[in-house]
UniProtKB/TrEMBL annotation:
PANTHER family: UPF0213 PROTEIN YHBQ. It holds the Pfam family GIY-YIG. Belongs to the UPF0213 family. Residues 2-78 form the GIY-YIG domain. This is GIY-YIG nuclease family protein. SUPFAM superfamilies: GIY-YIG endonuclease (SSF82771). It comes from the Bacteria.
Amino acid sequence: MKTYYVYILKCKDGTYYTGMTNNLERRLNEHNSGLNKECYTFNRRPVELVFHESFMDVNQAIFFEKKIKKWSKAKKEAIINGNWNELKTLSECQNNSHSKNFNQDNE
């Protein structure tokens, strides 16, 4: 059975790239060698692997990759730093009109 990896790379410009592969070492080398001029990381090399999670089910890996790609930089940095509990706080709506934050001053 194959293992699939969802990974986050930190690019030299400070941005993050999220991807999925079944060979983490090979894929990191591909990003750093610049094989694909159309790839997001091509002009942002070198890149550094800062996070990876393994999956035995390709569908779970695809789901997790798509989820992370939509996350803010702060949420990505929370999992990079192993602060999984911080994700809950970062996921909460901070809008003043949200019922949790609503007070009489908003009326």
